[in-house]
Structures are given as structure tokens and as C-alpha cells.
Amino acid sequence: MLQALGLGPTEEAVYTALMARPTASAQELAREAGLVAAETVHVLAGLETRGLVSVATEADRGAPDSADGRAALQSVRYRLTPPSVALAPFLVEQRNALHQAESAFSILIEQYRSSAVQSAGGVVEVVVGVEQVAHRFHQLERGAQRELLLFLVGEPVAVAREDADMSESVALDRGVDFRVVAAKDYLDGPDVARDVRAAITAGLELRLVDSLPLKMVISDRERAMVPLDMADSDGEPSAIVVHRSGLLTALVHLFEKEWAQARPLHTTATGVSAEPTADEQPTTGELEVLALLLAGFSDRRAASQLGVSIRTVERRTRRLMDLAGADSRLQLGWHASRAGWL
Q: What is the pLDDT of residue 248?
């Protein structure tokens, strides 16, 4: 925890050990922190120089009541400077350093944009090799501050699913708006449904389409990465990183178009399920047939009740079974109950 404020591991160990008691000697702190006495004395000297600890006064030590107590007074004892006083300058220093880093980052980005030639070399960079492609992918995901847009297609090539899942988790924890359009074949891998369910539960928005033209990741609508179909002479995967340009705008529009047409995925008790399209929902006439069949009516009685032919009842029943993926009317009834058709 204190390492974030600039303290080293041994300094943090000694500081934490001293925090648990009013005063302590170097020997006591060495035993508590698991260090040798000489190293502890050196660390305490550094902490004292930085104003984090001080040598305890007679009043801090208390009055001796034995020979042992008088002997203990001969050794140097330390106490903490109140953290609210001692650590505040370190926090201010870290904040200032972060502010300077952010300013330098912004300046470098603007210098790069202003000096880049408005040509293919300034707008598109080519990344070759598994490690390089994976590195750039993680850079785009981890660098996103507002929004990530992804197309997922088929088996991963350069970035393993578990690595991508970890990056997604980090982005969601930061509050990044995360939207994904996945092709059906992406869900065919082992354990993918389980991982997708966990991601949706964590806040990722996922929609499904039959197919997609390409894989893609877009970070904050400022950068995108798209795999190249061709490979280099060694057969390694490659990709292009697209910077802010008309090409990037076209990729964003492509994502939004596919997103608008895709079916949202939602979690179920056992995994995930896509919202059905209108063509995948039973019609009113088919639901009427289904209700009579589940009530025990034969095809003939159902046809007579509805005023239609037996062939119409059979046709509607066949389509219901196709929608449900059922091989029998018993399976059809089970699916209809789970899908909320009645």
C-alpha cells in the first residue's frame, strides 16, 4: 500500500510494524518485520530523515519499574509521526508526478499528430508477429478511458481468450463502456458461454449476429486494430492499427450498423441466450395450435376447434418444432414452457 507513495518494501514492513505499537526498538521491529537488526537500523534512519518516524522521548517510553526497564531506556526507541502529517507530502508529490506525466503524454500526442504526414504512413501502422499484435491489442484495451468496441469472430489467433478476458475485466472495473458484437461461430469454443455469461454479468454489452466481415477493436474512437488477411514470409499473423482518420470513422460506422442489427445476448440459469427475431417467434395461429395440443387435443379436434384444415394444424406444429429444435411434441411442450410462449 505504502509503496504507491514511494516507500520500498522493507520501509513499508518496518513502518507497518511500528504502527502496531506506541514505541519500539530496532531489535523489536526487526523481529516483527522479519529483517536483520542492522538493516532495520538503516531503514529507521532513512524513515527518520524523511520525517516518517522520530526518536521517542522519555515521556513516550514511560517510567522504568525494574532493572530491566532501566536497561531498556538505554536503547533507542522510535515512534511514528502521525500519518496525516508525515504522508501528506508524499501523496502531493505523487499527484504532481502523475499530473506532469499526463501533461507530457498530451504534449507528445499532439506533437505526433501535428508532425504526422497525412498519408497511409501517418494514418495506418502495420504490426507483424504474435507478440507484437497481442501487445498492441492490450495497449488499445488498457488505454481506453471511455469506450471499447469489438468485433469477435472465430478462434483467436494472436490473443488468447483468457488474456482478452483479463483485459475486459480490467476495462470494466475502470468503468469503460464496453460493447461487443460476436459472430455465432465465436461461441463454439469450450467454456466460451461460461466466460461470456460472467462478462455480461460484470457489465459488458454483447450482441450476436450470424457473421461479421472482420475482427476489430476500437478504443475511444481514436484508434482501431484490424487483422490483415495476408501473412508475412514466416506466416506470422499481422494487423493494422488505424489512427484518427476517415478510415477510422468508417470502421466506427460499420460497428454501429452491425450493433443496431444484432440480437442482444442475456444471461440464463445455465449460460447465455440471444433474443429471438420476429421470424423466430411463433405466430398467433401457431400459439393457438400449441395451446390446444398441450391441452390434449388431437390434430383433428384442434383443426375443428380452430376452423382450419388438419394440414394447417400439422404445418403449424411442424414449424413450432423447428423453432424449438424439438424432435417430439413432448420436447416441444418443454421448450414452450422455458421460452415463455404460453
A: 92
**The one-letter amino acid at 212:** L
Higher model confidence: residue 64 or residue 42? 42
Please name the helix (run of DSSP H) or strand (run of DSSP E) that holds residue 225, with its range, or none. Answer: strand 223-227
Whole-angstrom Cα distance, residue 161 to residue 197?
A: 14
Strands 205-209 and 177-183 turn out to be parallel
Do 63 and 73 contact (CB within 8 A), yes or no? no
How far apart (Å, rounded) are the C-alpha atoms in residues 39 and 144? Answer: 43
Residue in 86, 104, 102 with CA at minimum distance from that of residue 48: 86
Q: Is the pLDDT assigned to residue 224 strictly greater than 90?
A: yes
Cα 335 from Cα 342, distance rounded (Å):
11
The answer, yes or no, to whether residue 149 has pLDDT greater than 90, is: yes
- Residue 118: pLDDT band (50, 70, 90) is very low
Task: Specify the fold of 120-274.
Answer: Endonuclease; Chain A (3.30.870)
Q: Could you tell me which CATH number the domain at 278-339 has?
A: 1.10.10.10
Strand order in the sheet with 53-55: 24-25, 77-80, 53-55
For the chain, the average pLDDT equals 78
3-state secondary structure of 276: coil
Angle of helix 284-294 relative to helix 329-339, nearest 10 degrees, comes to: 120
For 73-110, what is each residue's pLDDT tens digit?
346 888 888 877 777 777 777 777 777 787 777 777 66
Question: What CATH code is assigned to 2-88?
Answer: 1.10.10.10
The SS3 assignment for 271 reads coil
Q: How far apart are CA 254 and CA 117, in angstroms?
A: 26
Nearest Cα to Cα of residue 286 among 337, 330, 336, 325: 336
DSSP characters over 34-51: T--HHHHHHHHHHHHHTT
Cell numbers standing for residue 120: 497511409
